[in-house]
Amino acid sequence: MSSDQDGEIVELRRRLRELEQKHAVEQAKRLRIEAAQQDEEGRKQLAEALTSAGVSGSAARVALNHLRFEGLVKTTEDGELVFVKQRSGGRGEEVELSDGLAAWLKSDEGRMFLEPSGGGESGTRSRRDTGGGNDERMTSRQRAGEALRRWRG
Predict the structure, then answer these.
(1) Which residues contact 59 (CB under 8 A, 6 or more apart)?
(2) Is 17 helix (H, G, I), strand (E, B) or coil?
(3) Separation of alpha carbons 12 and 116, rounded Å
(4) Residue 2 to residues 7, 79, 132: CA-CA distances in angstroms?
(5) Of 30, 56, 125, 146, which has the fewest beta carbons less than 10 angstroms from its beta carbon?
(6) What pTM does this model have?
């Protein structure tokens, strides 16, 4: 083999490595974009499921983040969003999203995301329940503190 051919082979190998690196970067970028799109679709699907289950507004946003952070909702390999029921021993059982949410919203943990059945704002009590009308003069921070004190007993 001549030295011209050796030089061409070296140059072709260098270009091949560059193209492989460029391809790997592009593929990683594409996978990140696809993962972000899938994540956004999952968030929308979960938000819709929470809304149809009776959780709305800021409670829905908080519930959505809580469910995802705690691993109670996940996307299967098929791209389906499922609820993960926690079982003894730390194992999780995957169930249909709507069924899992319905059961979770009946639990103490999930119930706090639902509006009270008596109407009004979530977490507030009527004047009759609080023993007077003083909470009208309280700030929202004071009302929240009072509700927390009552909740703790």
Answers:
(1) 113, 114, 115, 122
(2) helix
(3) 71
(4) 9, 55, 100
(5) 30
(6) 0.58
Phi, then psi, of 54 in degrees rounded to 5: 105, 10
Domain boundaries, the chain: 3-114, 117-153
Distance in angstroms (rounded) separating the CA atoms of residues 124 and 102: 23
Residue 16: exposure state from Cβ atoms within 10 A (0-12, 13-18, ≥19): exposed
Task: Output the DSSP codes for 101-148.
Answer: HHHHHHSHHHHTTSPPTT-SSTT---HHHHTSSGGGSS-HHHHHHHHH
CA nearest 150: which of 125, 132, 133?
125
